[in-house]
Write a structure and sequence with these properties.
This protein is an all-alpha fold. 65% of the residues lie in helices and 1% in strands. Strand 1 and strand 2 form a beta hairpin. Pfam families: DUF4129.
Length: 505
Amino acid sequence: MDLERLELELRHRTPWEAMDLGLPWLRRWCGPVYRAWFATFIPFNLLLFLALWRWPLVAAMIAWWCKPLFDRVLLKVYAEAVFGQPPGLGTVWRALPDLCRRTGLVAALTWGRGDMARSFHLPVHQLERQRGKAAQARRKVLGYKARGCAFWLTFLCSNFSACLQISIILLLELLWPSEAPAVFDWQALFHGDSGLWESLLSHLAWVFGESLVEPFYVAAGFVLYLNRRNDLEGWDIELGFRQLSRRVAAERRGPGLGRAAGLAGWGLAGLLLAQYPPDGHAAEPTAASGPEVPPSPAKQAIQAVLADPVFGHKVEDWEWRKRDPDGVAPARRKTADFSWLHTILGWIAEGIRLSGYVAAAVLAGGFGVLLYRYRGMWPGRAPKTRIVPSTLFGLDVRPDALPEDIALAAGRLLDAGSVLPALSLLYRGALVALIHGHGVDFLPGDTEGECRTRVRGRIDHEAEAYFAGLLETWTLVAYAHATPPPERLRALCADWPHHFGRIAT
């Protein structure tokens, strides 16, 4: 890679700053970018909608799914434009077969379609031509500090594109005459039952939104990729060393004779100035020009006093002081008043305390309710006397109100054409057997379904299945006024003694 041709200032950037650079890139190369986009993405959507106009939702889904292909077209434009040579339409069209074959497009359209860092990982497959485990390792290295930002880039751009689509539809509805029929049926649109024109306008709004967002999305991901490579490989440092090396080489190739003459001139001037000092300093003696001057009597007296142990001792002491770079102690600041915060915290503490009391009361009440409900299970308590009902749901369930042979009596009623009385007799007999033989307690307001639920697990599976069939037939005759097949009725009469006959009699 020729870094000197790279039209990007190489320096360290944060991932967010790098992604922001995608918008200036789009503005700078909007001509080549949008020419390539409109020459590929728009015709594809037009042909797709014409081919699948009867299934507009399918056409929209296919167009959305194939977006990674057109991301590769945009990246080709950016990758060549960043070196100062944006490709033309002919170059883009000729590169389409290679973009489909050698850039990992199959993976991007299958298991990699849900990649939330698609624009950031795309240069690894398209520009570096990495595949398999090598590509996975490369993505891991590049995404160490940038994958999270790439994820949010994809998330925000996807939502922004959807918001643009909905906004365009709402703007169209806002400008639509109120007297005319509504242009969109939102319920039908979201359920896929909209008309042809509604689907076409919705698809055009989506294409418009993608045309605004997708070029920026690819540019931002590409700049993020370049910024990450610059951090890893030190492109800015390498480029700086190259420039420094060229400057040093240029200085070495300069006119050496002129430099030597200049240095000789400066040396001669220095010698002349040394021989003729300025007037103000001509009479001053130097350190070696005369004998040393003895100290004055006052200075000798001061030195004698300081030499005395009583006055002339030094003491080192340490103390803590606030940091003050200016050497002036700062003025004491006024202490902030946080009394309002103490009041609020007091209210919160009081609320928590009251909530604890309420929770304790609720727990105690619930525990008391449980104790009362299951008081019959307390040790040493006499068992509760079971009250056996005499009627249920308007049916007489006393054992002495039933005939001795319930199945035979029900069969005679069937022979006489009395289907409902026959089923009622079988139903009453089964209830009596369940109440007195199996201890099942029914409530007066129970429905047929609730009766079946109460019986579940209290009798064997065959008897439970028979009781369910009896309830179903009873419901069919009593409420739907339908007549079941005679074979079914005869089977109910014949099987009744096998499940409830001994207990009922």
